[in-house]
Please model this.
Amino acid sequence: MLKDLFLTNRFFGLFAAIIFMFVLGYSIPFFYPLAITFFVIGIALFLVDLILLFNKNVQIKIRRRLPKIFSLGDSNKVTIELENQSSRNLELIIIDELPVQFQLRDFEKKLDLSANESKGLSYHLTPLERGVYSFGSVNVFANTKMGLVERRFVQDYPMKVPVYPSIIQMKQYELKAFNRVTNQKGIKKIRKIGHSYEFEQIKNYVKGDDYRSINWKATGRQGNLMVNQFEDERAQQIYCIIDKSRTMRMPFAGLSLMDYAINTSLALSNIALQKNDKAGLITFSDKIGTTIKAEQKANQLNKILTALYNEKERSLEANYELLYHVSRKLIKGRSLLLLFTNFESIYALDRMLPILRKINNLHLLVVVFFENTEINDFVTGEVNTMEGIYAKTIAQKFIAEKRAIVHKLKQFGIQAILTSPADLSINSINKYLELKSRGLI
Model:
């Protein structure tokens, strides 16, 4: 009983006031009998509150509900179900022992429960690291309206939940990519160019159809304009290649660039598989990490998800020569390669450019790298000092150099995406759909 008994601030406030009255009673006799009266009343209220709370009929049933997995970088819902199994109203303070990765030391929720009432309390957590997150006990502190003492109810609830690359984002982008009538911001509607598609059917001409697709023989037979309809070519190979060297360790909004690339690779692989293409994965740094051959099997997405979950950043430089040799050995046939990396200067690009050109000769290479959003925000702000003007000039030069990298890649026929980390998934998926619609893969 004693280990679950806690005195509240109201208790200490009441008896601090009584002690003050006793002190005043030494110089002002009027306060001494008043202090004794309030002391007796305070003790009586304390005992009554104690009896009400520690009655054996007062019980609280506690249950925590977690999703099977958490999504990296997304808001994940946690629910605690509480049932007041007593005949009196209770005021509750709930303290859940959260995983150490969140470093939340002041987590506290309040809830009022009427007699024999059940309620669910929900809160959200946003994990910023992959791995296993361990939850501890659920502590519930109950008090009555008097609020002089609290009784602790502890539900020993050790639970573990793995944090995987974002399943939530993957499903959101899938809906956007396949919803043909959506007007939401995000996936662009790409007009198909040319006829590098598989024939699907002959249909009646509708205003807006490409007149070059008119089938004149069918038109003559039917007496109405008829057009050939094509569908996207299938079974094309799409590889996400993730640089996990030290250049990808830079954090934005709590997530590293590598984690942004991991979330995007999962979403893009899912859309590619839904479009009947083959999705694969390669990770590398100073050595090759995961290699998953592009296939269209039923468990392919699960293989990619598991591999992305287990990836770890490395503190060494990326070996692009090794990547080139592996791409020649592993990837058979021309494929679309989306390389997620980060170049901070023209000099860094020049060192890797000869190898990137070799890879681009074999495949359709898209180099995806990142804007520094913090520098962008700094440039748009106002400065009033000479030092600030100097820093802003350097920042503008840094931004211009990023754009020069894009221009130089395009000069050598290499597709490039310069994007903020937050827009990485949208821009990468749009590029995949654009290249597919243009028949370049």
